Amino acid sequence: MTHPTSLNASRLLFGLTLAFAAVGAHAQPTFGNPSPTAGSQTSQKANASADQAIYQPVVYTNAAKKGPALIVLPGEIKSNNATFLQKFTANNIADFGEIELSNANFQVLERSNLGPLLNEFTLAYNLGDPQAARKFLGMGKLKSTKYIVKFDILKTEQVAAAQQGFDGRAIGNMAGLLGVFGGSRGAAQAGTVAGAGIGSVQTSETSGVWIIGMRYKIINAETTEQVANGYAEEKMEVGTKSTSVLGVSESQQGGVSLDTMVQRLIQKTVWDIDNKYK
């Protein structure tokens, strides 16, 4: 016969198990790291660098206030930098813009609702033709459009680069020669060992800094007239560092990627729009 106290304890334990299971089921998903170097010193350094580039949500000042209905059009990329043009299209930048404007509580309407007419719609606003532009906004939710927003990349250029390093081979050779001229076998041997040690030391460090500039435009959906515009720039640094001593080497490389830079510029300009034009 089961004792009532034991039965109650079992029920309590079962209830707690279900409660913890329910909490776990609603927790944010976490993922493992299958890398064979996970947890190692190199992994920790690489992850510490990556943590600086990971997406950071922005707290927009007026996020509690609902913004007007708008459509984000693909902007223009006026930079001739080949690396940037290979990675980005105007649609990529507009996608980032939609995400951040939604986070700032603007009513972002889907560009996809325009379907194959998107290019004609964009052209109408670029040409400032209100009649041609408005005829596309007579359908569904698009009727409520107040603003058209565009984000343009105006600048992507490497503005500075620096490099420094140390090669111990020349000094190592000198140390070996000094040992030879020391006048004794011991001095020669010590000089050879010291020369080999110093000669094995090699260090190098490089840094490159880019400046990326973004302009935003806010256009009145009714008249195609420009309501406001703004501009923001950010620096992007990419660097490498390596050291080698007696055959033991260490190297690191990293920096913020172009993708992250574009998203940060979007966040910066959306913060400006949220503060000034709601």
Fold and architecture overview:
With 278 residues, the protein is α/β, with parallel strands linked by helices. The chain is built from 9 helices and 6 strands; from the N terminus they run ααβααβααβααβββα. Strands 2-1-3-4-5-6 form a 6-stranded mixed sheet. Helix 4 crosses helix 9. The longest helix is centred in the N-terminal third of the chain and has 22 residues, at 4-25. 19% of the residues are buried. Mean pLDDT is 75; it is low at 177-181.
Per-chain topology:
Layout: H1 4-25, H2 41-51, E1 69-73, H3 82-87, H4 90-103, E2 107-108, H5 118-127, H6 130-134, E3 147-167, H7 169-180, H8 185-199, E4 202-220, E5 226-245, E6 248-255, H9 258-276
Parallel strand pairs: 1-2, 1-3
Antiparallel strand pairs: 3-4, 4-5, 5-6
Helix pairs in contact: 4-9, 7-8
Shape: elongated
CATH superfamily of the domain at 58-160 and 206-276: ABC-type transport auxiliary lipoprotein component
Helix segment tally: 9
Biggest β-sheet, characterized?
6 strands, mixed
| Proper CATH architecture of the domain at 58-160 and 206-276 | 3-Layer(aba) Sandwich
Which structural category fits the helices and strands?
alpha/beta
User: Cα distance, first to last residue?
Assistant: 71 Å
| H/E element order | HHEHHEHHEHHEEEH
